[in-house]
Structure formats: C-alpha cells, structure tokens
Amino acid sequence: MQQWRIHAATGRRLATAALAIALMAGVSGCGTDKMKTGSIGRTGSDGAIATLSSGQLRSASARLGKAYAANPDDKATAIKFATVLQMDGNAEQSLAVMRKLAISHPKDRQVLAAYGKALAANGQLEPALDAVRRAQTPEYPDWRLMSAEGAILDQIGQKDEARQLYRRALDLKPDEPSVLSNMGMSYVLEGDLKTAETFLASAARQPGADSRVRQNLALVVGLQGRFDEAERIASQELSPDQARANVAYLRSMLAQQNAWSQLKAQDGKKSAAN
C-alpha cells in the first residue's frame, strides 16, 4: 500500500516532515529530459511508476531485472530498473545498479543525476550532492538538476540555498509543478504549513502535476488537521481504502506527537518547580 512516511522534526522544525510516495522521486532522462520532483523526479513513462501498486512494482522489477541481467550496460534499462527497485523498497540494490552504471558512464549527465538520486535515497547526501553538481553544466543549466540539488540541500538543512535553486529553476521553467512541489515540501520541513500549502496547491493546479504532487498536498492539508479534505484529495489518486488508511495513519502519528509534546511540557513544569 502506498503510504505517507512521517518522521518527527526537531528544534524549530515543528512540523512532521513526510514524503508522499517518496520525497526523492525518480530520475530519468536528464541531460535530455530528466528529473522531476519530489525532489528528483521522473518524466515520461517512468512517471507512471509512482502510481504502481506493490504487486505491479514487483512484476516490473522482475521484468526489468531480466532485461538488465541480459545487458547491464544499457543505460535506459539500468535507470528504469534502479528506479523500480527504489520504489519497491530496495534502495541498496538500486544504488548498486546505479554505481555500476556510473563507473561505465562517468561523464553522462543523466547517469550522474540518477546516481545522485540513488545515493540520496540511501542517506548518502554529500556524495549525492557531488554527483548532481557534476551532472550540471553552467553553460547549459538544467532546471531539473537545480531542483534536484535543492531537494538534497533541503535534506541537509540548507533551506535558503535550496529555495534559491528552486527559484532559479522556476525562472527557467515557469510554473513547473515538480519544482513548486519541492518548494512546498521545503516549507513543510521548516514547519510553515500555510506557505507549503500555497506552493503545493499551485503545483497541483498545473497541467503536468502528477500523483506525487497531489499526495504531498493531501499530506500538508492533513498535517493542519483538515482530515476530510486531505482524504478527498488523496482519493483522487488512491483507492478509498488506501486514502482512509493514510489519513488514519497521519491522525495516529499526530496524536503521538501531541502526546509526547504534552509529556515534555509536564516534565518542564516539574523541573521549573523543583
């Protein structure tokens, strides 16, 4: 089942940061046509991967695995295989596929971008940043790579630099939903849910918006306690049962967060009294 992933933020990051389908969404076709959102996105037919069920992902993984085994140096097959592996929860295997491809294609922008995405999915953010930056060329800047770099910077806490890159990407590609979505998720990480919703609602209105954009919007609406509205948005992409399950999960996570906050507040009062 597709499900929002929630993890508690710390310090000033009051909001729970969650990644619908994956904060790091696929990579495919850079240099020519690549990265899309969520942070590092997909284009073309690969975008459909985000909407596959777990059973469909396993079938796609088996099919692409056979094609990859027959010709591991085929760039398109390797990138698609790595993308499906990551979506199916096999991030380490996905990274292994992309590492091998990067060795074979050390200067290919599309491969470097996909390799950076695989590194980021495994929590190796600094190497991911290096790979994405090496894929960029100043004389022919790629808005997808700018957005991807911004997504990685957001995850290491450099929100100002990340948003600057999103703005530059939007200058090159106005109203691009994947970039608007990344900007929105940047504000989620900061805990500014109102601003996040503004960007995500704008992203969702764009003709090219995909499932991940609308699921991110549903998430932010739900984080503000508007659960019925969140469920309606989620139901546009998921089955009614999946949408209800996601909202129920979000409710339980927020309830836990509130319980811990109350306990902390009580502990603080006791300490002050002693």
From TrEMBL:
<dbReference type="InterPro" id="IPR014596">
    <property type="entry name" value="UCP035836"/>
</dbReference>
<dbReference type="Pfam" id="PF14559">
    <property type="entry name" value="TPR_19"/>
</dbReference>
<dbReference type="InterPro" id="IPR052384">
    <property type="entry name" value="TMTC_O-mannosyltransferase"/>
</dbReference>
<keyword id="KW-0802">TPR repeat</keyword>
<dbReference type="InterPro" id="IPR011990">
    <property type="entry name" value="TPR-like_helical_dom_sf"/>
</dbReference>
<keyword id="KW-0732">Signal</keyword>
<feature type="signal peptide">
    <location>
        <begin position="1"/>
        <end position="29"/>
    </location>
</feature>
<dbReference type="InterPro" id="IPR019734">
    <property type="entry name" value="TPR_rpt"/>
</dbReference>
<feature type="repeat" description="TPR">
    <location>
        <begin position="143"/>
        <end position="176"/>
    </location>
</feature>
<protein>
    <submittedName>
        <fullName>Flp pilus assembly protein TadD</fullName>
    </submittedName>
</protein>
